[in-house]
Amino acid sequence: VQLVQSGAEVRNPGAAVKGSCKAAGDSVTDYVIDWVRQAPGQGLEWMGRIYPGIGETKYAQKFQGRVTITADTSTGTVNVESTSLRSEDTAVYFCARRLPGLSGRHDYWGQGTQVTVSS
Questions:
Q1: Residue 69 CB burial class (10 angstroms; 0-12, 13-18, ≥19)
Q2: How are strands ordered across the β-sheet holding 77-82?
Q3: Which of 13, 51, 55, 97 has its CA 20 to 30 A from that of 103?
Q4: How many helices (H) and strands (E) does the chain have?
Q5: 3-class DSSP state for residue 84?
Q6: 33 has which bridge partners?
Q7: According to the model, what pLDDT value does residue 114 have?
Q8: Which pLDDT tens digit goes with each residue over 2-42?
Q9: Closest CA to 118 of 6, 14, 39, 5
Q10: How deeply is 80 buried, as exposed, middle or buried, from its count of CB atoms within 10 A (0-12, 13-18, 19+)?
């Protein structure tokens, strides 16, 4: 299984950006997909997740209303859109497939997408 993410993006403050995560070799329908990010010099920060099979989403409070995660099960793609970007949103964004059960751990990660917010 591979999670293949879209390429790097550069945006001005206040703009929006959309990224994708496509599963190759397996379906995303039956797994929770998380989006996490890592800003320069910082640890991983969980943004939200989606269960594509039923379209259920959940977001970290910090990103509620500014981040939207969607899934297209026909193409095996999970998308994330962030609006009202700020310089603090500069980070590498990752999708990750969560293992079944309650461990919260992941078995596959995307390669990461660099998003740079700068004027």
A1: buried
A2: 2-5, 17-24, 77-82, 67-72
A3: 55
A4: 0, 11
A5: coil
A6: 50, 97
A7: 98
A8: 999 999 999 999 999 999 999 988 877 889 999 999 999 99
A9: 14
A10: buried
Query: With 80 as the cut, is the pLDDT of residue 112 above it?
Result: yes
Mean pLDDT of the chain: 95
CA angle 4/67/16 to nearest 5° reads: 80
Distance between the two ends of the chain, CA-based, in angstroms?
Answer: 37
DSSP-based three-state secondary structure for 103: coil
Exposed / middle / buried, residue 41 (Cβ in 10 Å: 0-12, 13-18, 19+): exposed
Q: What is the C-alpha separation between 43 and 81, in angstroms, rounded?
A: 21
pLDDT at res. 118: 96
Check residue 110 and report its DSSP letter.
B
3-class secondary structure, 25: coil
Tell me how crowded residue 28 is: count the other CB atoms within 10 A of its CB. Answer: 25
